[in-house]
Design a protein that fits this description.
The chain has a 3-stranded antiparallel β-sheet with strand order 1-3-2, with no helix packed on it. The protein has one domain. 39% of the residues lie in helices and 16% in strands. It is of the alpha+beta class and 102 residues long. This is DUF4283 domain-containing protein. Residues 40-100 form the DUF4283 domain. Pfam families: DUF4283 (PF14111).
Length: 102
């Protein structure tokens, strides 16, 4: 169960949350339709690694790709130390990951 401090910390991050084209790992300047933050948030999960050690971004990305069955177009963004945003290529991949273990 999340501690009150953890909930406050995540709430603070979400209040400041804004995706840039760089964070999405995509070129948003092209003409293929209108970019909306809400569209990408529906395909996102936030994850926090609990522990004293600061985790390696590349290691986290490799681990979640392997454990989650290599979801297509997965983008991992480090929001701050041990707090990550996982943006999936489709909502179905996000739901599959949410329903699986770990």
């Amino acid at each position: 169960m999340a501690s009150e401090q953890s909930v406050d910390e995540i709430t603070n991050v979400l209040e400041k949350f804004d995706l840039s084209a760089k964070e999405l790992g995509r070129d948003m300047s092209g003409g293929g339709g209108c970019f909306t933050k809400q569209k990408h948030l529906s395909k996102s999960l936030l994850g926090r690694i609990v522990g004293d050690k600061m985790e390696n971004f590349v290691g986290v990305k490799k681990f979640v790709n392997h454990v989650w069955g290599y979801p297509r177009e997965l983008v991992v963004v480090e929001l701050r130390a041990n707090l990550f945003q996982f943006i999936f290529g489709c909502v179905e991949d996000k739901i599959r990951v949410m329903n699986s273990i770990p």
